[in-house]
Design goal:
Layout (H helix, E strand, L loop, with lengths): L24 H16 L7 E3 L9 E6 L2 E13 L3 E2 L10 E3 L2 E6 L3 E2 L1 E7 L5 E7 H14 L4 H7 L5 E4 L4 E4 L3 H4 L3
Antiparallel strand pairs: 1-2, 2-3, 3-8, 4-7, 5-6, 6-10, 8-9, 10-11
């Protein structure tokens, strides 16, 4: 079932999520809701969605890359490279966005490579190394489970923030991000 996606300043988005003790029929239903919701997210579209974003204080998220869904329950970051990147190129870093903060985008420093562990929707343990955009996506969704939003990095690191002007299809810099980020 397609769920409503919570937006800032909803309090659930700032809570640390609780571990999933076991994959019950109720948890399976929540996973399917999360999967449906990300697939039907439009205006804007998304590539990841966490349980907190649909109002559930549970440690899990889905990613939707290349039309492939992946489920990560109780994810753990086992290792992360010390070297960080804003993605893209120095002149054009990757701009992260969030379905819970629609139409705002900004660069976020992230480790270049991570080793992760999680459980999938069948209860099978996953251990893999991610780099590039998949690592960035995993870390963005993992942050949601910790109550962290990408805009926290904007303020902490004095980074730019942009609004996507859909009429002109261009990013417009926000002169004072702290005037917009109050959650």
């Amino acid at each position: 079932m397609n769920q409503a996606i919570l937006t800032v300043p909803h309090q659930v988005l700032r809570r640390k999520s609780a571990p999933i003790e076991q994959i019950t029929p109720e948890i399976r239903a929540h996973i399917h809701n999360l999967m449906d919701t990300i697939q039907y997210a439009h205006d804007p579209e998304g590539v990841g969605l966490s349980f907190p974003q649909i109002g559930l204080n549970l440690r899990g998220f889905v990613t939707f890359l290349d039309k492939r869904l992946k489920v990560y329950l109780n994810p753990v970051i086992l290792d992360a490279s010390k070297e960080t990147t804003l993605g893209g190129t120095p002149d054009h870093p990757t701009l992260e966005g969030c379905l819970s903060i629609p139409w705002l985008y900004g660069p976020v420093p992230r480790p270049k490579k991570i080793k992760i562990q999680a459980i999938d929707e069948r209860g099978v343990e996953i251990t893999k190394t991610l780099s590039s955009f998949p690592a960035r996506l995993f870390l963005h969704e993992y942050d949601h489970l910790e109550g962290v939003l990408f805009t926290d990095y904007t303020l902490k690191n004095n980074l730019p923030l942009y609004f996507l002007d859909r009429d002109q299809d261009k990013f417009v810099p926000i002169q004072d991000p702290s005037s917009v980020i109050k959650w």
